[in-house]
Amino acid sequence: MSAIPDAEGLYTGLLAGVKALLRPETRLVGITSGGAWLVERLQKDLGLPGAPGVISSAMHRDDFARRGLSASAQTSLPFDVNGTDVLLLDDVLYTGRTIRAVLNELFDFGRPACVRLAVLVDRGGRELPVAADFAAAKLTLPDTQLLALARADDGAFSLKVEENK
Fold first, then answer.
1. How far apart are CA 112 and CA 110, in angstroms?
2. How many helical (H) and strand (E) elements, i.e. helices and strands, does the chain have?
3. Using one digit for the tens of pLDDT, what is the confidence trace for 28-76?
4. DSSP designation for 154
5. Model-level pTM greater than 0.90?
6. How many Å apart are CA 63 and CA 55, to the nearest integer?
7. 20 to 30 A Cα–Cα from 156, which one of 14, 21, 34, 91?
């Protein structure tokens, strides 16, 4: 297993990468839950007006019957999606299935002009042809392990590895 990088250090890289991807019409949208934490902090740190969007993959998951509906899985897009440049944010890019589900959810709200993706960690293992426009780190873990972002009470980020059940 590779060493788990410092999430706060990766956040600094993500902040710089997102700043480089911003256009005047870009709206940030975080994928629940790790991406939502990231987008909340990015919106503030970048001094962007308004509230960021939060999007859930729950209703469009291909494993919905197994996973069910998370209590925190609520989509909130406080802007018109039509014609918008959307920058999706997530903590970990793995198989690509969450991104596929999120795109279906996003298009339920309208037709964006452009959708791009920035992630804290790209851990490989893709099952679908999905690539991030920016990844703060690339990391390889065995399929038996899950990588997830955690947020402390003071807002500090950390990464944790769990055995896949």
1. 6
2. 4, 7
3. 999 998 999 999 999 999 999 999 999 999 888 776 555 455 555 689 9
4. T
5. yes
6. 17
7. 21
